[in-house]
Amino acid sequence: MSETAPRPTLEAVAARAGVSRATVSRVVNGAAGVREALVEKVRRAVEELGYVPNQAARSLVTRRHDAVAVVVAEPESRVFADPFFALQLRGISKELTAHDNQLVLLLTEGREDHARVARYLAGGHVDGALVFSLHLDDPLPALIRRAGVPTVFGGRPGWDDGGGEVRYVDSDNRGGARDAVRHLAALGRTRVAHITGPLDQTSAADRLAGYRDVVGEAAPGLVARGDFTPGGGERAMRELLDRCPGLDAVFAANDLSAAGALRVLRERGRRVPEDVAVVGFDDMLPVAEQTDPALTTVRQDIEEMGRLMTRLLLGLDGPAEAGSTGGSPAGDRRPGDRPAGGPAPGERRERTPASGIVLPTTLVRRASA
User: What's the CA gap between 78 and 101, in Å, rounded?
Assistant: First the structure.
């Protein structure tokens, strides 16, 4: 068996560079106050020896771990089955990698996992947390605040834990929903149904509010509750057809629900879009382009949301720098406000003290509506 070569030490680097151990430590840890000539000597010695800093020792000096926790408040089965999470994680991972940070993924199968996640975050293992897919009664925001970890949330906050300002990144869910329903109305559809997402999540609640902004409260029978899954879309679509067989359009709260609805419509002999027009929300290409027919949907840039969450946490962007609609949640807009797509050219974006980035949405027209 061959022996493993000893790992180069800080002292070895100092000897090779002809400087003190303290100077090497300052250069390796990015401290200021070292002359450029000495910095170059140390860097050259590090490269020649193949020195790799001891991360644990480095953390003691810098109080940084170069690691970020990504907390998804959903069970493992949902996270790995829904392309939404893959897209958001890809945006997060790309940005963390670009800034030499590690991603630590934490999932919550149930309430018993919340204390575990809180203990991990409070243990000083990571520099911050990115948290998304929260439900309104979720204890995680309060637990994370007590852990004292810098945090950015994915989605408009819908809770009040007394923690003050909350940083978040979201899409214009309400405006995008209005665009979807207005499009269906412009096609001459008069009985537009809605399959919601889980209404204990602000994205689903905002999309329902956008639907009602256009159709009003006159047709409660045209709303069926879903859960952002294909199976939930199927169940809701059957319920709607049984209750309102004359419906001629469906706005589903996400693409997966829309895919489930399309399957049921086909089973029931309804032609899409001739008999029933269908619009989704997300524009996840693995779903929207592969449904039959291809799905008209509201596009939100899911990967960009993950990227901006990361930049906000790392201090690389604030709402203004990110070109946001900062602050006021999309759900606060009323009918008559500008639809998704942001302000008109030259129009000033309003800012409020909340640290929110709200991204515009876009209607993508395909064959289903």
Answer: 26
